[in-house]
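@channel sequence for tomorrow's demo:
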Amino acid sequence: MKTLAAMFKKVRWLSWAILGFAVVVVLWVVRGLFAGRKPGAVGLPEVPDKLKAKVQKAEEEALVARVEATVEAEQSKKVLDDVAAIEDGAERRRRLAEFIRNQ
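structure tokens (generated this afternoon):
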């Protein structure tokens, strides 16, 4: 701090000029960051309607595929439960082999 005070005493006008320039630059940067913008104006642009339609269609197709997979899994589980209910023997092995071939 003493060095800064000594510099101010030696070159008073240059020190004030540098300090003033620094203040102006800081104020200019702060003004640029906050001035002229509405709150909430910063963000993503609006999504076009065509893109929204494509996304909705893809979501519907994914939902249909998920439901179909669930139905198929339930059918497979039902067949396996029926096979598990059969007492261990040739009939059970035959049905299990048939189930595996159909998959």
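heads up for whoever presents: The helical segments are 2-10, 12-34, 49-85, 90-102.
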